Backbone:
């Protein structure tokens, strides 16, 4: 848990530091929206654009905390599984679910940070568009999340299959 918090604080701090550093270096109008090719198609004031990225990251962290609390709750899993399982099996499912929540949150924060850096570079005239990096990050992120979700579903099935053959243990 401590490492998660440090990673989150580091990523949000970098985002806030970038916003503060570039506040006086950016033109008055900066890109705030991009089309399917990654080119800016809408511009806005720099102040809301600079605040937007750290705020979005804070929102992702809020959703993360809710998700993290949810997957930690054994009542949630007992209701979801609809069959009694051992405390040990429940612990394994919670651990695997935490991995998905952690990876999703950290991936989203990295994606927002990458998007912020690219937006700043576009506003400063260093590049024309977001480039393929964003789409590569999105693709890798979605593939990783899908693979983790598949692993959790397989683990759930395995635990339920074992529960069918064994009597429920404590806490069920």
Residues:
């Amino acid at each position: 848990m401590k490492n998660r918090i440090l990673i989150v604080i580091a990523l949000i701090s970098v985002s806030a530091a970038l916003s503060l550093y570039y506040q006086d270096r950016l033109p008055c109008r900066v890109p705030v929206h991009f089309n399917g090719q990654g080119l800016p198609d809408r511009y806005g004031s720099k102040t809301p654009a600079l605040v937007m990225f750290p705020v979005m990251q804070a929102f992702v962290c809020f959703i993360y905390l809710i998700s993290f609390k949810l997957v930690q709750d054994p009542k949630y899993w007992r209701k979801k599984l609809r069959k009694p399982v051992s405390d040990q099996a429940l612990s394994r499912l919670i651990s695997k679910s935490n991995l998905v929540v952690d990876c999703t949150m950290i991936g989203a924060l990295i994606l927002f940070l990458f998007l912020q850096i690219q937006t700043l570079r576009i506003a400063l005239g260093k590049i024309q568009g977001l480039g393929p990096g964003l789409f590569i990050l999105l693709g890798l992120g979605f593939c990783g999340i899908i693979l983790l979700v598949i692993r959790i579903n397989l683990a759930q099935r395995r635990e339920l299959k074992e529960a069918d053959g064994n009597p429920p243990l404590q806490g069920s």
Notes: The CA atoms of residues 34 and 41 lie 5 Å apart.
